């Protein structure tokens, strides 16, 4: 366990999970009363939340003590899937079949339960990703404006995130970043993440006041949306890792 202490300042400690070494990201939270641990959606890092007074060494030891659990979680991460004609692609929580028609317009369009896309087979995945990102920007901008209106806040700058390990973030300059992959999740899940970040525009913490505002802003069951991300979020990385 002391090996990580010899690493250069600023370098994340590591925990051995099976044959892999994963960085441990430690978050100190004012409202935390105990340590909690989870694996990033892509399996790329271990996240430990601890009370503000907690020690880094204890957080690393906690992660090491849960190595077997982490190993089991890694096995649940879906393997990357190639995007080819006939593949299933989720959009707003609905599975759609990719229908490649060479002479159809290159810009994708939804027809029934299919996404019809034309043009050459080469670059199919990149064209679909650009289309999803454009859909994400429009949907997220509408969500952001909606919740900012409810919160009495000016609409901040929106940036699409391609982060491998975060669904959303709110910078101190007010910029809200949301992972574009959420356009593939059910709308209520996407909106829950946006509502969370808008609540941070008012309360830059996870205090009781923050959670009260989030419950006021979000029109659905926030716990259910969080459970969906916990159980299905990793699937959003399968085709666009």
Structure summary:
By secondary structure, this protein is of the alpha/beta class. The protein has helices at residues 56-65, 67-75, 124-151, 187-202, 208-217, 222-232, and strands at residues 14-17, 20-29, 36-39, 46-51, 88-91, 94-100, 109-111, 114-117, 158-161, 168-170, 176-179.
**Low-confidence runs:** 1-9
Element pattern in H and E: EEEEHHEEEEHEEEHHH
Q: For the largest beta sheet, what order do the strands appear in spatially? A: 1-2-4-3
The mean pLDDT is: 90
Q: Count the helices. How many?
A: 6
How would you characterize the largest beta sheet? 4 strands, mixed
Beginning-to-end CA distance, first to last residue: 31 Å
Oligomer: single chain
The percentage helix is: 25-40%
Please give a structural write-up:
With 241 residues, the chain is an alpha/beta fold. Helix content is 35%, strand content 22%. It has a 4-stranded mixed beta sheet. A 4-stranded mixed beta sheet has the order 5-6-8-7, covered by helices on one side. Strand 3 and strand 4 (46-51) form a beta hairpin. Helix 3 (124-151) packs across helix 4 and helix 4 crosses helix 6. Mean pLDDT is 90; it is low at 1-9.
Write out key terms for the chains shown:
241 residues, alpha/beta, 4-stranded mixed beta sheet, 6 helices, 22% strand, globular, disordered N terminus
List the helices and strands and how they pair.
Layout: E1 14-17, E2 20-29, E3 36-39, E4 46-51, H1 56-65, H2 67-75, E5 88-91, E6 94-100, E7 109-111, E8 114-117, H3 124-151, E9 158-161, E10 168-170, E11 176-179, H4 187-202, H5 208-217, H6 222-232
Parallel strand pairs: 2-4, 6-8, 9-11
Antiparallel strand pairs: 1-2, 3-4, 5-6, 7-8, 10-11
């Amino acid at each position: 366990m002391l090996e990580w202490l010899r690493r250069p300042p600023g370098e994340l400690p590591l925990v051995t999970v099976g044959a892999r070494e994963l960085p441990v990201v430690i978050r100190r939270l004012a409202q935390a009363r105990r340590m909690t641990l989870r694996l990033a959606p892509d399996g790329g890092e271990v996240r430990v939340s601890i009370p503000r007074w907690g020690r880094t060494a204890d957080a690393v030891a906690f992660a090491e003590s849960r190595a077997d659990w982490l190993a089991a979680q890694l096995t649940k991460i879906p393997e990357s899937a190639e995007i080819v004609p006939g593949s299933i692609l989720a959009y707003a929580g609905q599975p759609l079949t990719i229908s490649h028609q060479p002479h159809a317009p290159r810009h994708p369009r939804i027809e029934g339960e299919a996404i019809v896309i034309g043009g050459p087979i080469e670059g199919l995945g990149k064209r679909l990703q650009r289309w999803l990102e454009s859909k994400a920007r429009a949907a997220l901008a509408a969500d952001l404006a909606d919740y900012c209106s409810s919160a009495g806040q000016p609409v901040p700058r929106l940036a699409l995130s391609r982060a491998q390990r975060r669904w959303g973030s709110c910078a101190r300059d007010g910029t809200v970043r949301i992972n574009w992959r959420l356009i593939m999740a059910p709308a209520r899940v996407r909106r829950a993440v946006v509502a969370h970040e808008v609540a941070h525009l008012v309360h830059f913490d996870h205090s009781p006041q923050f959670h009260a505002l989030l419950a006021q802003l979000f029109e659905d069951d926030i716990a259910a949306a969080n459970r969906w991300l916990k159980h299905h979020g990793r699937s959003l990385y399968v085709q666009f890792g």
